[in-house]
Design goal:
281 residues, alpha/beta, TIM Barrel, 40% helix, binds 3-methyl-2-oxobutanoic acid, 3-methyl-2-oxobutanoate hydroxymethyltransferase activity, transferase, Pantoate_hydroxy_MeTrfase, EC 2.1.2.11
Length: 281
């Protein structure tokens, strides 16, 4: 089928008859292979890596070098899916020059586009990245990098004025050249208003069914992350339980002597055994 490009993704509006976009996070080669082989359209190398892989309590701890490291691991698998890499906190806040350099670092690591969080405040940086020929995905609503400013991981756009601001923000991101927008943690009706208001696809997470696509975090979807269970997470498997059970079986087998078996061991040939004067083993 070939990799979906940013311009092709940009054209994927459900109201125009397109299939909803499917995006799943991945942070390393095994998860990238699973996500791509399962047929996702996009792999997001999300800064959620900080929480679900590196064990931090928020996403603020990862640097652009960390993101490049994980993006490169995903890209080495040469997935069918389009790779979008998150610009982490403080990698697009200081200056336009730094922002473009950081976006370029992620593209050189193997991403085909970058994502950043925030509304109108981010427009100058979005335009600079776009002018460097790098496709940009926006992200509004509950933006985890604004954790402290928002006063926690809280649903956004609950009041009419805030809902209107989100619609305006989405329009300006689209106008500035974003090819798609992640809408996170907003009421269903607000996501519908935003999706109707813009020409580019919206990809929801905790934003209800009316978006042009959906994204979930790999570890949430597979039941590998057991600490957090946001309302919007659907666990399609319980890999944490399966993995714990598998490791417990290994431990039992080691302790009982059942592992390794003869078939799982290497053996000297009869000739070498004879040369060593060993027999009957
Ligand atoms: O980092 C991430 O996983 C994200 C998704 C929640 C959209 O940004």
């Amino acid at each position: 089928m070939g990799k979906l490009t940013a311009p092709a993704i940009r054209a994927r509006k459900v109201r125009d008859g397109a299939d909803p976009l499917v995006m799943v996070t991945a942070y390393d080669a095994p998860s990238a292979r699973v996500v791509s082989e399962a047929g996702a359209d996009l792999i997001l190398v999300g800064d959620s890596v900080a929480m679900v892989v590196l064990g931090y309590d928020d996403t603020l701890q990862v640097t652009v070098n960390d993101m490049a490291h994980h993006t490169a691991a995903v890209a080495r698998t040469k997935p069918e899916a389009h790779i979008v890499a998150d610009l982490p906190w403080m990698s697009y806040h200081v200056s336009a020059e730094e922002t473009v350099q950081n976006a370029a670092l992620l593209i050189r690591a193997g991403a085909q586009s970058v994502k950043l969080e925030g509304g109108r405040k981010r427009l100058p940086m979005i335009e600079r990245i776009r002018d460097a020929e790098i496709p940009v995905m926006g992200h509004i609503g509950l933006t985890p990098q604004s954790l402290h400013a928002m006063g926690g991981f809280k649903v956004q756009g609950r009041h009419a004025e805030a809902a209107r601001r989100l619609v305006q923000a989405a329009k300006s991101l689209s106008h500035a050249g974003c090819y798609a927008i992640v809408l996170e943690g907003v009421p269903v009706q607000v996501a519908e208003m935003v999706t109707e208001a813009v020409e580019i696809p919206t990809i929801g997470i905790g934003a209800g069914p009316h978006c042009d696509g959906q994204v979930l975090v790999y570890h949430d979807l597979l039941g590998l992350e057991t600490r957090l269970a946001a309302k919007f997470v659907r666990r399609y498997a319980d890999l944490d339980t399966l993995a714990t059970e598998a490791v417990r079986c290994f431990a039992d087998d080691v302790r009982s002597g059942a592992f390794p078996s003869s078939r799982e061991s290497y053996h000297l040939s009869e000739v070498e055994l004879a040369a060593l004067g060993i027999s009957g083993l």
